[in-house]
Amino acid sequence: MKPSSPITQDLLTIPRTLPPGPINLIGMSRTIMHEKLLEIGTPEKQVKMRVGQIWQWIYQKGARNFSQMTNLSKQYRELLSNNLTIDVPQVVSKQSSKDGTRKYLLKLAGGHEVEAVYIPEEGRGTLCISSQVGCTLTCSFCHTGTQKLVRNLTCGEIVGQILVARDDLDEWTNLNSANDKTRLLSNVVLMGMGEPLYNFENVRDALKIVMDPEGICLSRKRITLSTSGVVPEISRTADEIGCLLAVSFHGTTDEIRDKLVPINKKWNIETLITALKDYPRLSNSERITFEYVMIKDVNDSELDALRLVKLISGIPAKINLIPFNEWPGSAYKRSEWSQIKKFSDIIHRAGYASPVRTPRGEDIMAACGQLKSETERQRKSKKEISMEAGI
Ligand code: SAH
Ligand code: SF4
Questions:
Q1: pTM reported for the whole predicted model
Q2: 291 Cα nearest atom in ligand 1
Q3: How far is Cα 196 from Cα 248, in angstroms, rounded to an integer?
Q4: 291 CB under 6 A from ligand 1?
Q5: Does residue 145 line the site of ligand 2, with CB under 6 A?
Q6: Is 311 helix (H, G, I), strand (E, B) or coil?
């Protein structure tokens, strides 16, 4: 492991210049929007109604400029556009996989880039969003972890990913906000680039907007946040967000997990399991998902499966087996399918659901762990990646 490989929140700062001038409404809470509208001269008696109207235009109807807000007077729309903006990330490129998966490369303020992936499934569609540009953690099997430049996404940039995907799916017209089942974008997972619990406040505030009943209106049970194990923030996730939790487990001994998920050196398996047992929202209907990437000859033995079952005993859980997705320069190989089957059978026999996650969008490098912005300026060398993988 390189001495500089951070397992803490230290962000490697990259210059971030926000354009001066009008303030973006996307990502603002209702309270702040209220203040801003007052500040720009909205009459006090009207301001509550105006917040409601603007909120609906943006989050229910997909308005991208004030001129679309036809129930506001022309004069008021002018006042708004002189002081405020409605900015979403810019779609630099979109790739579509033969399986229907769509990957968006998005440009943010300061020119930084992240990716979001839309995965259509029978009767639902999941958008996988990013919470950071890159990631400060350096999981040895993850492409994002090889990206050196990192910054947190703002609340507006997190919400903005959902808005642009919905634009692309043309899902604003005929949207029945009360009925998740008919939606193309019905679920959101924080499994893109970055560690969401190292950007807790922005992620929380963004998800509040995503769940707002008068806006995007996704149920908290249709949002899953995946963490590599930032133990101190785990119970806050239940208390302050209330969404479902997934944990990137990947190793059944500290020795293996230290190599795969280096944050384990800070919060080891025992500490993590204790935090999960105490997870305030734990129940059979709200089980924790244990993500387990299947890497050939590293963590895929039958003994690993048995240890995993023992470790999680007593926790309402499902185990999501993810065949390792290779990326250029990766140090590992995907487990054999026969081995994945053996592993999954052991877990299944112990009474847990153990779906194997079918890799989606592999042809466009959109599968789990393959995300990495194309234009990042510094790359880790193959040697550095191998050193971190401990091989
Ligand atoms: N940082 C968070 C969320 C993003 S990663 C976390 O680690 O949980 C989303 C999931 O993809 C995690 O379970 C991660 O371990 C997994 N993943 C990363 N690289 C992968 C790869 N190359 N193949 C398969 N899964 C991978
Ligand atoms: Fe970061 Fe998650 Fe990748 Fe680890 S697996 S490097 S925590 S994005």
A1: 0.91
A2: 13
A3: 12
A4: yes
A5: yes
A6: helix
Give the strand pairing for 90-96 and 102-107: antiparallel
Q: d(Cα 116, Cα 103) in Å, to the nearest integer?
A: 6
Nearest alpha carbon to residue 389 among 140, 83, 32: 140
DSSP state of 379: B
Q: How does DSSP classify residue 200? A: H
Torsion of CA 239, 242, 246, 248, to 10 degrees: -40
Whole-angstrom distance, CA of residue 297 vs CA of residue 300: 6
Q: pLDDT tens, position by position, for the chain (391 residues)?
A: 333 444 555 555 555 555 567 899 999 999 999 999 999 999 999 999 999 999 999 999 999 999 999 999 999 999 999 999 999 999 999 999 999 999 999 999 888 899 999 999 998 999 999 999 989 898 999 988 888 778 899 999 999 999 999 999 998 875 555 555 678 999 999 999 999 999 999 999 999 999 999 889 999 999 999 999 999 999 999 999 999 999 999 999 999 999 999 999 999 999 999 999 988 777 777 899 999 999 999 999 999 999 999 999 999 999 999 999 988 888 899 999 999 999 999 999 999 988 888 878 877 777 766 666 554 433 444 455 455 454 4
Structural domains in the chain, CATH included, are 23-85 (1.10.150.530), 90-389 (3.20.20.70)
Q: Is 128 a catalytic residue?
A: no
Would you state the structure tokens that stand for residue 173, as one six-digit string?
């017209």
CA distance 210 to 226: 17
Q: Ligand 2: which of 10, 248, 272, 330 to mutate, judged by most atoms within 8 Å of the beta carbon?
A: 248
264 C-beta closer than 6 A to ligand 1: no
Q: What is the CA(349)–ligand 1 centre distance, in A?
A: 25
Testing ligand 2's pocket by substitution, the residue of 12, 114, 137, 147 carrying the most ligand atoms inside 8 A of its CB is 137
Q: Which atom of ligand 2 is nearest to the CA of 195?
A: 7
Q: Which atom of ligand 2 is nearest to the CA of 263?
A: 7
